[in-house]
Specification:
CATH superfamily: Gcn5-related N-acetyltransferase (GNAT)
Bound molecules: coenzyme A
Shape: globular
Number of strands: 8
Radius of gyration: 16 Å
CATH topology: Aminopeptidase
Structural class: alpha+beta
Number of domains: 1
CATH class: Alpha Beta
Length: 202
């Protein structure tokens, strides 16, 4: 299957319909979905999420990716940037969910770094947001370790959340690279209406 990239411990590839059983096991875990606006996912919701990812890959060239542990070839969850409507604006939003047995090993931080590198280096995004409930300490920590520094508090799907933002400039400064020094990546046009609302499908 097509591979997007790799980190030291992970292979990163697009999600596909064949991932429904493995992803459903993760998104069906109430602990994993504790801070999700939709709660646990059944098979239909998981399939719908993967379908949305496929639409996003085609329309935006981005979307949550499957994370595969190199050592075991195990499917461990997803991470990536995707389109997200926040208020009346379409943002590029970083999201991640891992199976519980893989928590606490630095894998989300590793994959978040890859997601941001893709957003800024390949897709030349102006900024990326992360939408996190203040009670979700692990996720706050991952965002901070990935480089998010500033946030504002907003209401999102009925919840008070932190809207973190990292700009291309901030990311480039911490990665010793500048926008003007690289060739511009080819961008696909944004579609006006995907008929879906982003990560909040799951
Ligand atoms: C959030 C999530 C992806 C983190 O995955 P992970 O692989 O465990 O993350 P990492 O190991 O890279 O980093 C987690 C950090 O949070 C810290 N942490 C975790 N729980 C914590 C707690 N209760 N209190 C304080 N720190 C905590 C860890 O110590 C670690 O920080 P450190 O490296 O400074 O020690 C995982 O917990 C998850 O899938 N949660 C459910 C889905 C979710 O909430 N996704 C985010 C939606 S916004």
């Amino acid at each position: 299957m097509e591979q997007i990239g790799a980190t030291s411990r992970l292979l990163i590839r697009p999600l596909s319909p064949g991932d429904v059983p493995a992803l459903m096991e993760i998104l069906g875990d109430p602990e994993v979905m504790k801070h999700s606006v939709c709660g646990v996912c059944d098979e239909v919701a998981t399939r719908k999420f993967i379908e949305w990812c496929s639409v996003s890959y085609k329309s935006h060239g981005i979307g949550p990716w499957a994370l595969i542990e190199k050592e075991t070839s195990a499917f461990i969850g997803f991470c990536g940037v995707g389109p997200e409507h926040v208020g009346d604006k379409e943002e590029t939003s970083l999201g991640y969910r891992l199976a519980r047995r893989y928590w606490g090993k630095g894998l989300a931080t590793e994959s978040a770094g890859a997601g941001l590198a893709y957003a800024f280096r390949v897709k030349e995004c102006g900024s990326v947001v992360a939408i996190i409930e203040p009670a979700n300490i692990a996720s706050l920590r991952v965002a901070e370790k990935a480089g998010f520094r500033s946030f504002r508090e907003v209401r999102f799907h009925g919840k008070e959340v932190r809207l973190y933002r990292i700009t291309h400039e901030e990311w480039s400064e911490s990665h010793n690279t500048s926008r003007s020094s690289r060739p511009r990546a080819a961008m696909r046009p944004l579609t006006a209406d995907l008929g879906v609302s982003g990560y909040r499908n799951q």
